[in-house]
Amino acid sequence: MIVPADVPLLRAARREPTPFTPIWLMRQAGRYMPEYRAIRARHGFLDLCKTPDAAAEVTLQPVDRLGVDGAILFADILLIVEPLGVGLEFAKGEGPVIHRPVRSVADAERLQPIDVDATLGYVFETVRIVTRALADRVPLIGFAGAPFTVASYVVEGGPSRDFLATKSFMYEEPAAWDRLMGILAGATARYLQGQIAAGARIVQLFDSWVGALAPADYRQFVAPYTRRVIDAIGTSAPVIHFGTGTSGLLAAMRDAGGDVIGLDWRVDLDEGWRIVGEGRGVQGNLDPAVLLARPSVIRERAADILRRAGGRPGHIFNLGHGVYQQTPVEHVKALVDIVHELSDRR
Ligand code: CP3
What we know:
The protein is of the alpha/beta class. The chain has 15 helices and nine strands. The protein has one domain (8-342): TIM Barrel (Alpha-Beta Barrel). Strand 6, helix 12 (250-256) and strand 7 form a beta-alpha-beta unit. The model has no long low-confidence stretch (mean pLDDT 97). Coproporphyrinogen III is lined by residues 26-31, 40, 45, 72, 74, 76-78, 90, 95-96, 143, 159, 206, 208, 322.
C-alpha cells in the first residue's frame, strides 16, 4: 500500500478541503529528540545521512512520537554540494564548513557538473526505505535547498549573517554567478525528481536565507534559477516554496513558483496569504520560540494562526522555521494535538 492521494497534507497542498488542518514541523527530526541523540551518538552527521537504514529510522521517529501528518526526509540541503568538490564538512558544534569556497571566476570555472544519480543514490535509497515503512500512513516530504541558499554556503564557506561575499560575487561577477546557480539549479531539479521517483509525494524547496535580498535582486539573480527547479517538477508532486524574512519577497517568490508558499512568523498569516493570493496555499507560521513556553501559551498562539487561516483550504500548519534544539518534546507533541483539536471540522 502507498499513501493515498486524499490524505490531509496532500489535499491541503492542492487547496482541497480537509477534515482538520494538517501539521508537520521543520526539523521535526533532530537534536531536541532523545531518540535522535541516541542514534547520533553512534554516527557522525554526514555518516548518518549516508546510512539509509539509520536515516530512515530518524525520519520515522517523529511520525511515531508526535502524530504529525507528514514525514520529512532526513538529509541536509548541503549534501548536493559534496560532489562539487568544495570540501563539505559538518564540524562538531559549528555547523557546516566548506573548505574551498567559490569566490572568483576561476573558482566557478573549475566547478564540475553534479552527477546526482552517481553521487546521491544513498538519499534515494533512504526515500525507498521510508516509503515502504510508511505504507499508507502519511506522505514522505522530500526536499532540497534552493539555489540561492545553497550558493550562499558555497560562496561564504559556512553560515553568514550579512551574506557579503555572496552579494559581492553576484553583483561583480554575474556570468560566474550564472554558472554556479545554473549548475545548482540543474542538479537540484534532478535531485528532487529522483526523490519523487523513489516515493516522495510532496517536496519542499528551502530558500532559508533569501530574505537577505532586495526584491529587485531576488527577481534578477535568484528567481530564474528557482523557477527552473520548480518548473522541472511540473505536476509530478506539489512544491512548498519556503524562505524566512521574506515579508517583502512573497509576491516575487510566488511568481517564481510553488503550490504552497512558506511564511515565517514575521508576517501575520492572513496578511501573508493576502499577498500570496488565493490561488496558492500557505504553510506556517508559528514562531518556533513559542514551543519553549508552556502549553497554554502554545494553545493561544496556535489558535490565533488557525483563526487567521479561517478554515480556508490550502493551509498547512508548521513553524515559521525549524524546531530549536532546546525545545521540550512534550511541547511539540502538545502543539500537534492542539492543532488537530482546534481545527477539527468533522
Ligand atoms: O527534520 C528535518 O527537518 C529533516 C532534516 C533536515 C536537516 N537539515 C537535518 C539537520 C533538513 C530539512 C535540513 C535542511 C537544512 N540544512 C537547511 C534549511 C532549513 C533551515 O534550517 O533553514 C539548512 C540551512 C541546512 C544547513 C545546515 N545543516 C546547518 C546550518 C546545520 C547546522 C545547524 C544546526 O542546526 O546544527 C546543519 C546540520 C543539521 N541538519 C542538523 C540536522 C538534524 C544538526 C546536526 C547534528 O545532529 O549535529
